[in-house]
Design brief:
The protein has 156 residues and is an alpha/beta fold. Helix content is 38%, strand content 17%. The protein starts with a strand and ends with a strand. 35% of the residues are buried. The structure holds zinc ion.
Length: 156
């Protein structure tokens, strides 16, 4: 199942199972670079995020639909692009944006909100930055070496 992730989904520091295929647009990456960067981009690399642009036909289709539903004024260029990309890839969109979800619903596309649906594809584990040991539960510090323990995508 391919997923198209918006900036909110990436910023939330999601970790995703490897069985999914994950996509986003250059616009989303540009948006993320304006904010607290490191965590999101680090994760983007870890989950093998594919960054790609939707074609003009798909963008035109989304724009036409958004005009019909009246969502065009509320959708950013980035929103339009992730919708178009998901349309092209027949992917599930991960976004909390109401207008994105609305346009997607009208087109019969699947969406998952980050706060609800995406929990299904989150798969966290925790790893010590010092000694590298993995933990199932979040730890304030590593019980072995005392280093910071961070959430990371589970492998395999
Ligand atoms: Zn440790």
């Amino acid at each position: 199942m391919p997923y198209v992730l918006d900036a909110t989904a990436l910023r939330a520091g999601l970790s995703l199972q490897e069985k999914g295929r994950f996509y986003t647009t250059p616009g989303v990456i540009a948006e993320i670079r304006k904010g607290p960067v490191a965590r999101s981009l680090e994760l983007a690399v870890e989950i093998s995020l594919t960054v790609t642009e939707p074609g003009d036909d798909a963008k035109a289709k989304i724009l036409e639909t958004a005009r019909k539903t009246g969502d065009d004024g509320r959708l950013s260029q980035t929103d339009l692009e992730i919708l178009a990309l998901a349309w092209e890839l027949n992917a599930t969109i991960v976004s909390d944006d109401y207008s994105v979800q609305n346009v997607a619903a009208v087109l019969g596309m699947k969406t998952e909100s980050q706060t609800e649906g995406i929990r299904k594809i989150i798969n966290w584990t925790y790893r010590c930055r010092g000694c590298g040991k993995y933990y199932e539960e979040k730890q304030p510090d590593c019980p072995i070496c005392g280093s910071e323990v961070r959430s990371v995508p589970r492998k395999g």
